[in-house]
Write a structure and sequence with these properties.
By secondary structure, the chain is mostly beta strands. It has one domain. It is 6% helix and 52% strand.
C-alpha cells in the first residue's frame, strides 16, 4: 500500500472490521443428473450435469456505516508526490513521482447514525455453479503389460468464483476494490492409465489440468492507465490479475495464479496376507510449482466384522503452493471399523 495518502488514513480513522457468515440453508438442495452406458466394443462412458453450491467459499467485501448500510468510497483524481531523494535530479516530482490518489466516503450518508466510522465487512457465502462433464474408460491389450485401462474425465464449470487482485487499487488503500471475487468459467480434466504388475499390484498414473478460461493478467493501474516502467514504484505495485485461490497470502504478495495449473499423480495398490486380508495403498501427488503430497495407508481385516487401518499424510515442498503450505499439517491417523452383520 505504498501510495496510500494520509488523506485516506484520515478518512478511515477508527475504522472497524467484521466477518459475517451468510451460508445456504440446509433446505437448499443441489441438483444433479447422470447417464451411464457401455458401447458394444466395451467403452464405458457417462454424462453428468449438476447445479450446485461450489464448496469453495466466496468472500465479499464492503464498507458499512454504523447502521449496517453499504457505503461507497470516493476516489480522488491522481496526483504526484514530491521528489524525496534529490539524487541526480531536481525539482518537484522528477525521479520519485508516484501516481497516487486518496479515498474517502460521504459522511452525510451516515450523519444520522451514532458516529461516522466505517466498518469493513467481509461476508462469507457460497454461490451456485453449473457443472457439465463426462467420463470414459476402455481397456487395451498390450504384450508387455497385459490389459491397460485408459481413463479420461472432464468438467466444464460455469459461474465459479475466483479471487481478483488489483494491485493499483491496493496501493492507494482501496481494499474493497483491490480484493474481489468474480464469476468466471473453468475447465478441468484428467487423463489416466491403470495396469497390473507382479501379478496383483495395480499401478495408476494421472495427468490433471485445471484451466481458468477467464484468467486475468492486465497491465493497468487503478485509474485505467497502463503501468509504466519509468516509475519503479508504480510499475512494481500495479496490475490486475487472478490470484492463487489456495495459496494467496499477504506473505507472498497475493500470489498470482497459473492460467493452466497442472498436477501429476502415481498410485500403487497391492493386497497382502495369506488370503488377501490386508491391502496397502500409496498415492504421490506432484503439484506444478513444487508442492508435494504423499499418502500411505494400510487396511487389515482382523475378523469378518473388525477392520483396522493406519494412514500417513505427508505434505512438503514450496510453501506458496497448495500442498507445500500444509507441511506442518502432516499427520498419522489410526482407525477401527466394525461392520454390522
Amino acid at each position: 500500500m505504498d501510495r496510500t495518502s494520509f488523506a485516506t488514513f484520515d478518512a478511515f480513522v477508527n475504522a472497524d472490521s467484521e466477518y459475517i457468515l451468510d451460508m445456504p440453508k440446509d433446505t437448499e438442495a443441489n441438483i444433479a443428473f447422470a447417464y451411464r452406458n457401455t458401447t458394444p466394443n466395451g467403452l464405458n462412458y457417462s454424462l453428468n450435469y449438476s447445479y450446485n453450491y461450489d464448496p469453495n467459499p466466496v468472500i465479499k467485501m464492503s464498507w458499512r456505516d454504523p447502521n449496517g448500510n453499504e457505503i461507497s468510497t470516493i476516489t480522488s483524481d491522481p496526483f504526484y508526490t514530491a521528489d524525496t531523494d534529490s539524487i541526480g535530479d531536481s525539482g518537484y516530482g522528477v525521479a520519485d513521482a508516484v501516481k497516487s490518489a486518496y479515498l474517502t466516503f460521504d459522511t452525510t450518508a451516515v450523519s444520522s447514525a451514532a458516529g461516522t466510522n466505517a466498518t469493513l465487512r467481509m461476508t462469507q457465502t457460497m454461490e451456485r455453479a453449473h457443472n457439465i462433464g463426462g467420463s470414459l474408460d476402455f481397456a487395451v491389450d498390450t504384450e508387455s503389460l497385459g490389459p491397460v485401462v485408459i481413463r479420461a474425465e472432464g468438467v466444464y464449470q460455469k459461474d465459479v468464483y475466483s479471487p481478483i487482485v488489483d494491485r493499483g487499487k491496493l496501493a492507494i488503500g482501496d481494499l474493497v476494490g483491490a480484493l474481489q471475487m468474480k464469476k468466471g468459467d473453468k475447465f478441468k480434466y484428467v487423463l489416466g492409465a491403470d495396469f497390473n504388475v507382479l501379478t496383483d499390484m495395480m499401478i495408476s498414473g494421472q495427468f490433471i489440468q485445471e484451466r481458468n478460461l477467464d484468467f486475468q493478467d492486465k497491465n493497468i493501474d487503478f485509474d485505467g492507465t497502463a503501468c509504466t516502467a519509468n516509475n519503479s514504484l508504480n510499475a512494481a505495485n500495479c496490475g490486475v490479475y487472478t490470484a492463487d485461490f489456495a495459496a494467496m497470502h499477504m506473505s507472498n504478495g497475493f500470489k498470482k495464479a497459473e492460467e493452466n495449473k497442472e498436477f501429476y499423480s502415481l498410485f500403487f495398490s497391492k493386497p497382502f496376507g495369506a488370503s488377501g486380508e490386508g491391502r496397502w495403498n500409496n498415492i504421490l501427488m506432484l503439484e506444478e510449482g513444487g508442492g508435494r503430497w504423499n499418502r500411505f495407508d494400510v487396511e487389515y481385516s482382523m475378523t469378518d466384522s473388525l477392520i483396522g487401518s493406519i494412514e500417513f499424510n505427508n505434505y512438503w515442498g514450496d510453501k506458496n503452493t497448495q500442498f507445500g503450505q500444509l507441511e506442518n499439517a502432516s499427520n498419522i491417523q489410526i482407525g477401527l471399523k466394525y461392520l454390522l452383520q
